[in-house]
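FW: tagging you since you asked about this chain on Friday. Here's the raw sequence from the shared folder, copied in full. Didn't touch anything.
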Amino acid sequence: MNLVLVFFCNLCIVTILYETTATCTIYGSKEPGDELLHHEHVFRAPHGQVAQSYDVVFPKKGKRNEKVITAIVASDLSPRNNATTSIKSGGPGKNYVTVHLKALPRKFMNYIILIYGRISEANLDNLVKGRSKL
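HL: got it, structure written out here
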């Protein structure tokens, strides 16, 4: 009887962990000193038989970004829905990115997108040269 109870408890724990564990896709690599440039939570409810897609664009229209993107972390908070991510343009090494999210028909998407970066070497040199003239 105790063996059955232990097995059942372990099965419950594994099921709970599977249901609640987020999966991450990482583009690039985050290093010490990188800063969070942008974060966005994307939740889209299903729309019947139509596959959904959504683009996370950074920087937003009308804004500038002087820093180089080093890493993009796309965390799927509902991994059983099999949504996918891809980089449409830009990405690590650039100062802009469009992350494309796509969900299957009758499935929702629930993502957190984190974009990290740092000041580029060229911008750092210009900043230092500009300060040295003061």
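FW: Residues 22-132 form one domain.
HL: agreed, and The longest strand covers residues 109-119.
FW: great, closing this out.
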